[in-house]
Prior knowledge:
The protein is α+β, with helices and mostly antiparallel strands. The protein has helices spanning 13-22, 32-37, 71-78, 83-98, 144-157, 160-167, and strands spanning 107-114, 117-125, 132-139. Strands 1-2-3 form a 3-stranded antiparallel β-sheet. Strand 2 and strand 3 form a beta hairpin. The longest helix has 16 residues, at 83-98. The two termini are 24 Å apart.
Amino acid sequence: RPDLNIKPIWGKVESRRGEIEKENLDGVILAAAGLNRLDLGDEINYYFSPEDMVPAVGQGALGIETRAGDTEVKEMISKLSDHDTTLCVNAEREFMRILNGGCHVPIGSIATIDNRTMKITAMVASCDGKTVIKATKEGSPEDYLSLARSVSEEIIAMGGKEILDELK
């Protein structure tokens, strides 16, 4: 969006919200989950869709690590595990692994499962945002690794690897 002037801001929600007045900003982008948790959900004017902004890999998924061999705790938390979410996050992570991305590069992926069909959307962008490469694949959730590889291959074929290589 060349019509936007993006300014990074840091801090807690209240200080970020204060930047609107202080810096004469038109708005700020914050996580809806955090605003809702703070009972500020009524202040949300727009929710980005994955088509608007592909999220970072694994966003919204909760990972729980336990001590090796602690079968009692593993059994307790196993009730929290969701098979479809695990498949989706694994597909997203496979895309990032193939492209050798990380948390400091403009790369994103989101996988969803609806009516037993997995849809994975992935993107790579240049740091200035002038080049955005995005691809989507659909298939069986059980083929999540193949779907991740397929969307990765398409992103690479469209120049995604070159963008990431320039950032190194």
